[in-house]
Design a protein that fits this description.
Number of helices: 7
Shape: globular
Low-confidence stretches: none
Helix content: 55-70%
Mean pLDDT: 85
Strand content: under 5%
Distance between the termini: 31 Å
Structural class: mainly alpha
Radius of gyration: 16 Å
């Protein structure tokens, strides 16, 4: 049974897209490696189940020099030797901030 997804926030709140675009531009100006950012975005899109984001992530990662092996294995990056220490750190951080769990009643505390 498919899980219903939240509508795209940019459709619900058009100003959100402006803000997200500004964040993206600020990150790009920070001088971070394009391949690193592309792999990170690709992994976040995979986790979020965003088909267009995965397609764009693959395209960007290819533009910045990601290998075919990396593109095929980014979802299983821990099990390969195809990622540098820097890329592994970025992918681990991406997963940590993308995989938000819903707290159980016990974790959330009394109501």
């Amino acid at each position: 049974m498919p899980t219903e997804r939240m509508p795209n926030p940019a459709v619900l709140l058009p100003a959100a897209m402006t803000a997200l675009t500004a964040v993206d531009a600020a990150v790009a100006r920070a001088g971070l490696d394009g391949k690193l950012l592309a792999l990170s975005r690709l992994r976040a899109s995979q986790i979020n189940g965003c088909g267009p984001g995965v397609a764009e992530g693959v395209h960007r990662a290819q533009q910045y020099g990601a290998s075919t092996a990396q593109l095929h294995a980014v979802a299983a990056w821990r099990a390969t030797t195809w990622f540098s220490d820097e890329e592994r750190a970025a992918l681990a951080l991406t997963e940590a901030v993308t995989r938000l769990t819903v707290p159980t009643r016990q974790q959330a505390g009394p109501r």
